[in-house]
Specification:
211 residues; alpha+beta; 2 domains; globular
Length: 211
């Protein structure tokens, strides 16, 4: 069933479950935060891509205001709760400064493929090890979803939006697996070349071959 949702377009993709801290300075979005507090409403972040507001976005709930500045600016904490599709976009909600849209909620199938999950986990471990980010892998929960790692895979904003378009975890697994299989050899080779470059000019202790 369609409903009206306040909108806050930004040049980024937010995934369900993600926590996002924002600094609010524009009067229209300060008004939006005030309405979230007063009326317990949610708002949506549709990515602003290719000089336009995207059809899909992520619904956000205000968790709290961390700081309110003398000039009215705000530091807020939010959490993404779901994905929606915009049926009609309005530059201003009725009687408000901020934008809004008539939206439909997008259903998602959370079913995972265990074999794909195992392959993705192996590739992610290789990726983080090559980049010196092993702590990210160590801290990764066993029940992670693609959404939980998507910002740490070297995806472009457009590729992240493709993940948002996917309506099942299986589809997201396939997209991420294809991406990792494509970039992992390139990254590992680049890191190997960097290691070789660091050795240039240093004394090398090499064992000659026996022949």
């Amino acid at each position: 069933m369609s409903r009206l949702l306040a909108l806050f377009p930004l040049n980024l993709v937010v995934f369900p479950g993600e926590k996002l801290n924002l600094h609010i300075f524009e009067p229209r979005y300060r008004q939006l935060v005030q309405d979230c507090v007063a009326s317990d409403i949610t708002f949506g972040i549709p990515p602003y891509l290719n000089e336009g507001v995207s059809d899909l976005g992520t619904e956000m709930r205000l968790l709290g205001i961390d700081k309110q500045y003398d000039n009215g600016e705000l530091d807020i904490r939010t959490k993404a709760v779901g994905v929606f599709r915009i049926r009609e976009f309005y530059r201003q909600a009725p009687g408000k400064l901020y934008a809004a849209g008539t939206i439909d909620d997008v259903a998602d199938d959370p079913e995972q493929d265990p074999e794909l999950k195992a392959r993705i986990t192996e590739y992610v471990q290789q990726l983080y090890t090559a980049l010196g980010l092993r702590k990210l892998f160590v801290d990764l929960p066993a029940a992670y979803r693609v959404y939980d790692i998507a910002h740490n895979l070297g995806l472009s904003t457009e590729q992240e939006y493709q993940l948002l378009e996917a309506t099942s975890e299986l589809e997201r697994q396939q997209l991420v697996l294809e991406h990792l299989e494509r970039i992992l050899p390139v990254i590992i080779e680049a890191e190997r070349l960097k290691d070789r470059a660091r050795l240039n000019g240093h004394f090398k202790n090499l064992t000659p071959p026996n022949f």
